[in-house]
Amino acid sequence: MIRMEQRAWDRAGRVVSAVGLGTWQLGADWGEVAESDAFAVLDAAVESGVTFFDTADVYGDGRSERLIGRYLKDRPDAGVFVATKMGRRAEQRPENYTLANFRAWNDRSRANLGVDTLDYVQLHCPPTPVYASDEVFDALDTLVGEGRIAAYGVSVETCAEALTALARPGVAGVQIILNPFRTKPLEEVVPAARAAGAAIIARVPLASGLLSGRYTKDTVFAADDHRAYNRHGEAFDQGETFSGVDYGTGLAAAVEFAGLAPEGVTPAQTALRWIAQQPGVTSVIPGARSVEQVRANAAAGAQEPLPPATLDAVRELYDRRLRASVHGRW
Questions:
Q1: Model confidence at 1, in pLDDT bands (50, 70, 90)?
Q2: What sign does the dihedral 136-111-236-82 (CA atoms) show?
Q3: What is the chain's alpha carbon radius of gyration, rounded to the nearest angstrom?
Q4: Cα 183–chain centre separation
Q5: Is there a contact between 212 and 206 (Cβ–Cβ < 8 Å)?
Q6: Band (270; pLDDT cuts 50, 70, 90)
Q7: Among 17, 19, 6, 10, which residue's Cα sits nearest to residue 273?
Q8: How far is CA 273 from CA 13, 125, 299, in A?
Q9: C-alpha dihedral (298, 301, 307, 312), degrees to nearest 10
């Protein structure tokens, strides 16, 4: 039995698993996932001690939410805290972030998930001016007051956006790209969230699979996989694909990273453990398309901490190979 580490989330008043489950892939933006396979993934996660699912209203145009809703209807005892997101259903202009739109988007998510009150809703990487809008955060407080949502937070692209959001007392958490190939959030954002009692949810933890060590220059991704069509930000922010790292550069760094994995631990598990043991990180949310991936990822939440020598080696690798091309951009 895996004894998944569970961590307190102060501003949400909940406890969640150190390794959660990202469900973007269940919406079919990483290639088609059969419904039976999706339910098997969710079931394996729960059986492995995962108590935190992250989704969004645009993942498969709501398919990810609906699958989670149907699964949890049959598993009311699962104790899963579900985070969803809103904001990407409209043209990305600040004026579209209104209370009326929030209510409409929330009502759709509540129907998809089959709940009266959403556990946690995040603004889904909105335009930067949104973070400075009192009206937006007043509207979010209104949604809490109306019982549509229990808590809210933000999913961000930049550290500056995260710091602006954390100044808001109602923001319960920040979701941000954080992994051994994208470490800048550790400097200011993670400490700020820790001081505020807000969660840090680490997304893109395996740099879209680069850190798994499974890919080569000859790997071919399906045409409907964002790793094929968004390498340069053609469809959405480039940082969401391979953490914004050039594919060739990332492959070379991934070979070195794989050599840092402790005996009996995979490169992917090493990356997840590295993130999970950063002070202030609440949960890391790798995606998975198979039962085996889920179980392997969840095992990282029960592993011994990486030794200081490994942590130092990861930092040295980042500084030498990636800092110049990645650190300044985000």
A1: very low
A2: positive
A3: 18
A4: 15
A5: yes
A6: very high
A7: 19
A8: 24, 26, 9
A9: 80
> H helices within 126-234, ranges in order?
134-145, 159-166, 189-196, 226-229
Spell 119-148 as b/e; 16+ CB within 10 A means b. Answer: bbbbbbbbbeebbeeeebbebbeebbeeeb
Of the candidates 106, 112, 51, the one whose C-alpha atom is nearest the C-alpha of residue 82 is: 51
Judge whether 170 and 189 are in contact, CB under 8 Å.
no
Q: Please state, in angstroms and rounded to a whole number, the distance separating the CA atoms of residues 51 and 74.
A: 15
Q: Please give the full DSSP string across 65-98, using - where no structure is assigned.
A: HHHHHHHHHH-TTS--EEEEEESTTS-S-GGG--
Please choose, from the candidates 224, 234, 310, the residue with its C-alpha nearest in 3D space to the C-alpha of residue 274: 310
The DSSP output letter for 51 is -
SS3 label, residue 101: helix
* Of the candidate ranges 108-112, 230-234, 278-282, the one whose mean pLDDT is the lowest: 230-234
In this structure, which amino acid lies at residue 131?
Y
Question: Are the beta carbons of 88 and 57 closer than 8 angstroms?
Answer: yes
Q: Are 203 and 56 in contact (CB under 8 A)?
A: no
Q: What is the pLDDT of residues 87-135, one digit of tens each?
A: 999 999 999 999 999 999 999 999 999 999 999 999 999 999 999 999 9
Q: How far apart are CA 278 and CA 173, in angstroms?
A: 16
The single residue listed with the structure tokens 């899963």 is: 80
Region 173-201: what's the mean pLDDT? 96
